[in-house]
Amino acid sequence: MRAREEFVQRLSIKRARKLGSLSKEAFAELELAVRNDPISFVDDVEEEAFGIVASALAHYEESLHDDDLLDDDQYVEARAQRLGLIGNACEQALDLDPHCADASLLRLLAADYAPDELAGLLLELGEILEGEFGPLERGATGDAWADVFVRPRLRVKAALARTCLDTARFAMTRQACEELLSLAPIDALGARLTYALTLARLEDEDGFEWLDAREGRKGNAWFHLSRALLMYKLGRMPAARRALKGYDRLCEGGAYILLQPVYVDTYMPDRPEFEPGTFMEAMLAAHEAEPIVADTPDFVGWASEQPGFFDSAVAYCRRNGLEWRDPEVGM
Amino acid sequence: MAFDPQREDYQRLGLRYARHIDATNPADATRAFATFGRRFARERDSLPQSDGDRAFHLVAMASKLIDYELPFVSDEEAENLIVRGHQLLDEALSLDGRCYDALRMKAAADNPSFEAFYTYLTDCAEEVRRICEERRASALATEPSDERKQLAADIAMRPFLRWLATLAEQALICGRNREALRHARAALEVDLRDGADVRFTAALAYAKLEDEQGLDELLSGALAKRCTRPSNDAWAQIARVAMAHKRYDLRAASEQLGELMRLYPHAPETLIRQIELPDGVFARLAVRPYSEDELVLAVSEATVLLQEGREPEGRGVLGVWVQREAARALTPAVLQTLVAQAQMASRDADASGGTSTPKESGDSQ
């Protein structure tokens, strides 16, 4: 989440509304001024609350950089501490504005609930927000994301979609993703990625083909992995092999991360940004796919037996000085 | 009722014997038939039988050892039982190379992965169908009465039904739910009354696909009307619980679970333990409907539903919810005993190096 950027936009829009009709140039000037000193443009408790959340998130993201140097115990402690800080900031923000959706969302995520409990709490949060602000709508531009004040609610829905996937509620995931794609077709939050995995898990080939076509069949780690899983599940092995090859060839480190899954921390509050085609992309896709991969128990074993796949994983591991955790392989 | 190998063995020899005494005069036949039961039990070899019948008898013996005795013996004894079971299957195959039950049971042990076993079953399915259909045609042509025609035809097709039921079950375990349904449908085409109880597997597959309509049709459509048992078996109930839980309709999930607990004795204990058993290699174990054992089997097969999803302790989202709900139905004292047993079991598992199932290994959270 680009919290600071959204904070600047929110403040600029609110100030511009106060000032009356501004030219494009004048708005750009205003935005620049806000960017330099956002706090001095805060005129209401909503923005004060949002500012607290944005600043807490900035601290949170900075604190992630030191993780590599920590051992496991230190990591657990550091993580608890930074989640605690986010939680406190959210409480503070909610005291000012009880309807601050981002604060509500982050408070739930920072509390580290079991996914099943989180699913219930996110559903409840969605209902509270709908009761307060009415149903989500596309808005004048045809994409709800264009309204920076609606984005927090879209993030709540995207988090719900991912949590439903994590708790094996795939029809609910599908529904949340469909709503997100309909409300915000540009899909800045990447609901299509969660959707692709869900359609693979539900073995919905028509749905998956529709979604892939909607994306212009450009493909990415989620889509390649989803297709391989889908074809494997449908028992269409030549197609599954082709899809797996595509995943290996087109996703940087894809083979490696499927065979050597890594821990990925809770998204705060949404999927971290990544450059398309990077290892980060494959890592996030493989992480999100974990429950579905685990539900297809022989998939990983089958994948590693396909010609070239295991070698590709090992080669990537060596090239990048990464760790191979299976002692039997004897790297 | 699932397939009972001992009963089927008896039926096969009974049919053979009936054919044998067709040739004798009615008075002798009556006397001969009166002695059949005793001869079956004590002097089996004195009864007429084909190599196929002898092979099936060995299969029934192997099934008794592997499916019905193995779970209750010590590790050392287990080794012997398995060796003995395989000898019986080899012997069966030396008598009848097309004893598909023996081939399937051997393949279950010989193929190291679900995937390899599944591929084997898929590759041979058409051959098994063809041969079983030939045997059925021959039975229909040679048996004199409708009753005997029917029984002989049923028996001829059973190896294929078991093949399909195993395919459906394996597909479900492999995460191939549409394939599971396809195999279940194929079995139902062969046997409208579902003697193999493939609808139990199908109910779990529909729940996995979160296909409300498909599950409704299965549990209250034409098939349900043909079956003698109402659709409130443990598999159907667990599928209903899972569907409601997946909709986040926890009240409905609780009600369905409550119904399951009313139908089965000692259900809370079974639902808390959630023991995962090896599948019967001959067929799903033949147990009494609505018995505690039946619930144990259903819960074990429902592992695919219970253990899915991210859950901090790796037990599965629905599994943990079901355990919690079931615990509410128990008195504190009973619950405490169960918890102590579970802890002991998990300590034993840790001490022996742990036995992680393939389902757990992929999930790092």
Can you put this structure into words, describing what you see?
The complex is a heterodimer of chains A (331) and B (365). Chain A is an all-alpha fold. Chain A is 67% helix and 0% strand. Chain A is globular and about 65 Å long. The model of chain A has no long low-confidence stretch (mean pLDDT 95). Chain B contains 20 helices and no strands. Chain B has a domain at 197-354. The longest helix of chain B has 29 residues, at 114-142. The A-B interface holds A 114-116, 119-120, 123, 166-172, 202-203, 232-235, 261-263, 290-291, 293-302 and B 113-115, 122, 171, 173-179, 209-210, 246-248, 250, 304, 308-312, 316-318, 320-321, 357-365.
The overall pLDDT average of chain B reads: 90
Structural class, judged by helices and strands of chain B?
mainly alpha
Pattern of helices and strands of chain B: HHHHHHHHHHHHHHHHHHHH
Major β-sheet annotation of chain B: none
The shape of chain A is globular
Assess the beta-strand content of chain A as a share of residues. under 5%
Average pLDDT score of chain A: 95
Structural class by helix and strand composition of chain A: mainly alpha
Taking pLDDT < 50 over at least 5 consecutive residues as the criterion, the unreliable ranges of chain A are: none
Largest sheet descriptor of chain A: none
- Please tally the β strands of chain A and state the result: 0
Largest interface in this structure? A-B, 34 and 38 residues
Helix % of chain B is over 70%
* Total helical elements of chain B: 20
Distance between the termini of chain A: 38 Å
Give the count of helical stretches of chain A: 16
Low-pLDDT runs of 5+ residues of chain B are: 353-365
